Amino acid sequence: MTVPTIESLPPLADKLESAKRAAAYRAIDENIDFQNDRVIGIGSGSTVVYAAERLGQYLKDSEYSAQVAQFICIPTGFQSRRLILDNGLKLGSIEENAAIDVDFDGADEIDTDLNLIKGGGACLFQEKLVSTSSKKFVVVADYRKKAPKYLSTNWKSGIPIEIVPSAYVRVSDDLKKLGANHVIVRQGGSAKAGPVVTDNNNFLIDADFGMLENPAQLHDKIKALVGVVETGLFIDNACKAYIGNADGSVNVFTK
């Protein structure tokens, strides 16, 4: 099998999926050093599905298979662990591979400085651990995720914040004192009675602060609260963002 070019691929029935695929495939094509990279971060979300798929295609190509077979892929949660295994890639752990060459992950929203809101999928701590352990952090997303300027312009669900369960009342009150308009403990929905529990056995709070003109300052204030494990604000972390469009084109933003 030869890795198909993006241009040769038939369009998907859903234009949104075509946008995601185009962004993820191009990001993999342009940011993997097949000769020198060995440890690859694989994040979470619907666009990252296509990043793992693209790596799996390279694994089946005789020109690249030997190199890709040596890649150790580090997941950010249960979904990405399955993506790695389902595409025939080698699964590793960050405990044994603390230095990562390149990480590919999605975003809930991206501002013009490539700051991100992440955590809609409840994996924000592992996602931040992997991305900040990487030499390069590359974001893949569709056109809906790009803010015209400030974070929380399009994303209206608030900033995801991972917290110690016993601190949820204290942290909720402290977030309101910081200026949050609305604070909720994320619930598990109809399939689960009670709050969402992360892979680290913590709760998630979603806090709405409106549009974020200074996300770095807000991140620091939230992170300083007793009971907060991590915030879904990824500040000055990503080096590139690949944004797929409905027509299959991709916009690339760099820092």
Automatic annotation (TrEMBL):
Coiled coil: none annotated. It comes from Maudiozyma humilis. Keywords: Isomerase. GO terms for cellular component: cytoplasm. It catalyses: aldehydo-D-ribose 5-phosphate = D-ribulose 5-phosphate. One of its GO terms (biological process) is pentose-phosphate shunt, non-oxidative branch. Pfam families: Rib_5-P_isom_A. This is Ribose-5-phosphate isomerase. The keyword Isomerase applies. InterPro entries: NagB/RpiA_transferase-like (IPR037171), Ribose5P_isomerase_type_A (IPR004788). The keyword Nucleotide-binding does not apply. Pathway: Carbohydrate degradation; pentose phosphate pathway; D-ribose 5-phosphate from D-ribulose 5-phosphate (non-oxidative stage): step 1/1. NCBIfam families: rpiA.
